[in-house]
Please model this.
Amino acid sequence: MSTVEVVVPLSRPAGDSYLEVPRGFRSWLVTTDHKRIGVIFLFATSAALVLGGVFALLLRAELLTPGRTIVGPLAYNRFFTLHGVIMVWLFMIPSIPSAFGNFLLPIMLGAKDVAFPRLNRASVYVYAAGAVIVLSGLVLGGADTGWTFYPPYSGRTPTSVAPIALGVFVLGISTIMTAINFIVTTHTLRAEGMGWMRMPLFVWTIYATSIIQLLATPVLGMALLLVALDHAFRLGVFDPTVGGDPILYQHLFWFYSHPAVYIMILPAMGVVSEVVCTFARKNPFSYTAIVVATLGIAFVGFLTWGHHMFVAGMSELDVGIFGALSMFVAIFSAIKVFTWVGTLYRGSISLDAPLLYLYEFLFLFGVGGMSGVALASPSLDVHWHDTYFVVAHFHFVMVGGTITAWLAALHYWFPKMFGRHYPQRVAALGTLLVFMGFLGTFVPQFLLGNAGMPRRYYDYPPEYQALHVLSTMGSWALGGGLLLTAVYLVAALRGGRRAGTNPWGSRSFEWDTPSPPPQHNFTEQPVIARGPYDYAREEG
Amino acid sequence: MTETETHLQAHFADLAKQTHAARFGMWTFLGSEVLFFGSLFALYASYRAEYGDAFSRAVRHTDLLLGSANTAILITASFLVALAVGELRAGSDRRAAALLLAGAALGVAFMALKGIEYAHHFRDGIYPGVHYRYAALPEEGAKIFFTLYYLMTGLHALHVVGGIVLLLALAWMARRGRFTARWHTPAELGGLYWHLVDVVWIFLWPAFYLLH
Amino acid sequence: MTREARRVWITWIVLLLLAGLTFALSFIPSDPFATPVALGIAMVKAVLVVAVFMEFLDARATPRLAFVVSLLLAAILTTLATVDVLTRRVPALPPG
Model:
């Protein structure tokens, strides 16, 4: 078993990590250091999670009783719209790639930075601008169209559609800048000795995600630009009164928004691959299978968007085509799940918060994914479309999948990024609260949807109330778990036990740098002589 | 400092790798532009499938002469920029600067003709969306046609303006001797952008001026 | 003149000629061929600009792949949306 030839001083004078060098608050505002940029995005996206979560708690509170509970219907419509917009575009899309991707990609590749550090800095400013524009729309009263902005209503509503749509457009530009950077970095800045099949699996998922972001986001940009123009200037491209076709908007919107869910889940799957191998101290059951499945999801994911439009008025031919393709894409996710389970099997398991979150991921993503396969059948979707069944499905995969993996990533790379440990027992309690809270919130929603409760409805018949109350109580537990996590992590930033270079005993390349890493990652250019999962098998 | 040292950034091993990365970055950006305009072409194709006759009739009401002149202008502007990059490779910075400037000038001419076209349309009452009031072509398909016309040529025109600014900046850099025969990557990248803007127009021209 | 410069000049002339050809053809009423021919000539022109002016053929494999994939996806979006409109049994829009 050869050792990796990464020349890095493992003990170095204190005070010269990327957090301290260069000094001063101003240096953070103009930084091109990918690690600092990753940390900035981490804090920004976490703040967005809190804001989106507040809207979720508010709307769930409103749903405690039929009719009015705390607000009127117009405010309720704004709550679910803003919850969706903030969660999808200010949190979910950038959460893992822009934060962890930025921090880890160059280090995992053995590079000193991304290919275009100044473009990276610009992506932060553009994200900030987009966020400001969206928030200004929020201050002006938000929108009530749902995060999907369907015309013709999005052109007619008196609420502030234009700033929110334009803000998301600007956020999309930031995404594309990051995507270009990551794609070119992966191709051109791999250290000597790192072939494509020696890259950590997290890098593969960030790479595939970047391809999707590059190619899908422009179409969303166009769709939202048209909505903003329609709202502001009555452009009417999708307005039936001037001959427009609202279904064509949906084609553009979902051409992006279906691949968008793969933007949200692929990096999460990359985190899962890393955590699984480290905490089972085992090579992946099949590295190649995960790579193939990653690329398969990225490509086939572009071909399935019409399954959001089964009942919109699309032709039956298109319904059939999209239904078949949607079934197909699930195969790749299944390959990954089985590969991860196979990796855990007979591994040397160490139980800690990242792995606990990983177990939650496997269960919740499995259930969520299977409910997706069911929804992909047009004859079933006819009954479930626009009900809570769909809401439960996507929250199982988005929250149970992506946010769980994001929490795993937070805990897994916390020592590396900040040089500190979090309190392990409190963290375990947090994972339990999050898990129970999640189940309490969203399992009732499968039942609600199956019983016919439509989504986005302010009012409902009293027979649905029990399930709504359960769901709302679950949301409090989930919120509590996330709040607890935030508190102990923030406390650990200053007060946590200092971490060594490789507290988890991982063989992946980022653990060969100090915790936290120095400004330029490495003192000498690394030469890679082994793969990233080089775990020795114990005999006997 | 050697020529290489002034342009090589710290995180790249050598200038060849860095140049490859820069070109790769530009091609991926152009890929995103293909999808940005592509979504509008998708709308055009779908609406044309819906409103075939109305679209055909509406095409006759755009200004074929001005549109065709603009096609020749953009083709020539692309040609001049391609020549300019060749001159930079040969070390003829002044000639390159003049060619880049000429390309920008043609871009301005394009914008001028576009402005005249739009003015003529406004005079006839052809406005986008619900503001349309052209009595000679009242059908819905024509309204959608002209809405798409303004959207697509307008977005394209914005990209032309960006291109003009870019070419002027590159001309200035060439004039100031910022480029060398071996390193002129910004000019290559700018040229790629400008040529894509030309390619988009190559498809806008038949869509809005010829297919009747 | 260098070989590259000569290629650029010839491409320019050919592009103008093709544009002139499309222009002339637009006066001939020749449905149903008018659309495919005009689009076909446009594609030839686009290929010339990409291949010669943008030096696509001299670029490395991965940037070329990136560009081609983007074209492919734009084509998929256009095709499936247009097929939807063409194959609806119940027309979604008022006639006109």
Chain C has three helices and no strands.
